[in-house]
Amino acid sequence: MRFQEIVNLHPEPISLDRDALLRCINECLDCAASCTGCADADLAESDVRTLVRCIRLCLDCADVCDVAGRVVTRETEPDLGLLRAVVEACAVACVACAEECEWHAAHHEHCRICAEVCRRCKDACDDLIATIGHEPSR
Amino acid sequence: MRFQEIVNLHPEPISLDRDALLRCINECLDCAASCTGCADADLAESDVRTLVRCIRLCLDCADVCDVAGRVVTRETEPDLGLLRAVVEACAVACVACAEECEWHAAHHEHCRICAEVCRRCKDACDDLIATIGHEPSR
Amino acid sequence: MRFQEIVNLHPEPISLDRDALLRCINECLDCAASCTGCADADLAESDVRTLVRCIRLCLDCADVCDVAGRVVTRETEPDLGLLRAVVEACAVACVACAEECEWHAAHHEHCRICAEVCRRCKDACDDLIATIGHEPSR
Amino acid sequence: MRFQEIVNLHPEPISLDRDALLRCINECLDCAASCTGCADADLAESDVRTLVRCIRLCLDCADVCDVAGRVVTRETEPDLGLLRAVVEACAVACVACAEECEWHAAHHEHCRICAEVCRRCKDACDDLIATIGHEPSR
Questions:
Q1: CA distance to partner chain D, nearest, from residue A69 (Å)
Q2: pLDDT tens-place values along chain C, 138 residues long
Q3: What number of other Cβ atoms are within 10 A of residue C134's Cβ?
Q4: How far does D136 lie from chain B, in Å, by closest CA?
Q5: CA-to-CA distance for C20 and C4, rounded, in angstroms?
Q6: Complex ipTM, two decimals?
Q7: Which of A64, A77, A79 faces B67 most closely, judged by CB atoms?
Q8: Residues of A whose CB is below 8 A from D12
Q9: Cβ of D109: how many Cβ atoms within 10 Å?
């Protein structure tokens, strides 16, 4: 995706590890789209009644990943406390969604994949938070 | 706003204080729109260069309030840990944005009002989190 | 809601009817929150399988109203063709969602109210588009 | 990105060309992130006052692409009129943003790339709309 080139051209780059930053944005985008897709696939399954909690958490996780991706993309005059709180909330949403999707993984392949994407996004959030930890908060 | 009637008709209401819940959603909506408006007004000011940090934090705060409002609106099968993390991130974003807007309050009336809305949204988030604290987390 | 004060303090107000503009933003916010709430209430109903299309269209309508509200709130350097396309898409989403919600209005009071909010938002979009029609497009 | 696997596992796939569908979602995600990044890079440039219109249109385009990507990702019980209106609005936003970014392409590489991403997203939207044209609207 070409947005990464744009992020790398920022005139005053944020003082965080570039790889961790780009990976976090990337995983947030993939996870937001995966959760939107998984909620939608759930809705079309014949056992939708058993998937209600999965739909709800996928909707939450899609929304939170979407916003975390936006906040992390912005490098101008960052507030690291805000960034940390949003990325932490994203990690919490990813775990909640992954755990629920894993319940349905044996019956629904889209849930199995969605859980994997959530776990990977959670790891990318944790890694980015770890690099914030070493920076003086502004 | 009529969305409150819909929230109050939920077949399985979330076990949180109704007033705190509705006030939090309402303040998140007002704060999201206020921050979108303040960032946009900043952009049209002749001293835009001094307002760069204000624009950036208003954009973040608008995005986070928007999502917090959505997550809190959803009452079906809630994950209270997720809800808490998102509402806490919202409170952090509101404080960061309010503090910056207050720097510009003497020169820009829209910043003065935006800061007030952010402070009120922060309080509504804190109040909702306090009622979560008394619930068993799921 | 106080965001209206901020919108009215814009240093270079957009050349559109103020009442139509503020009403459109207001209805978009109410409709976005109402559709988020209606989709969520649907999800908790025992007849969720009959509400699948309602959930899907409520999710779409919430997303589209959310963005239309943001675009209309921004008055700096507007592109009226873009504004028109987004507000028209919002009107289309509101009608699709209202028509579906009306099918369920007799059984679910939240669907009845949601349909009314969608219709009112559609009217506010139409009214704003009508005032754009009298402006030279930029 | 793995969300594509999830989209391809939908139990009742939408009757639109798969390649056009996936390409449209992909370009919307890239364009949303690119516009968020370009607006943010603009904000940090020393000539921010000349980039005000670019920032504003990038914010609009990011929001519209985000929602178009979500609507197109959903395959359950689609309303093709709604889908068409949203994708058309996205194409309009992409052109407006590309034209503005092109004005700044010689001075700012992030604007040059953002314009290219917008153009590519516009083409993907047009291609998806063309395949809708051949389907009976529901």
A1: 8
A2: 999 999 999 999 999 999 999 999 999 999 999 999 999 999 999 999 999 999 999 999 999 999 999 999 999 999 999 999 999 999 999 999 999 999 999 999 999 999 999 999 999 999 999 998 755 544
A3: 9
A4: 34
A5: 12
A6: 0.96
A7: A64
A8: 44
A9: 15
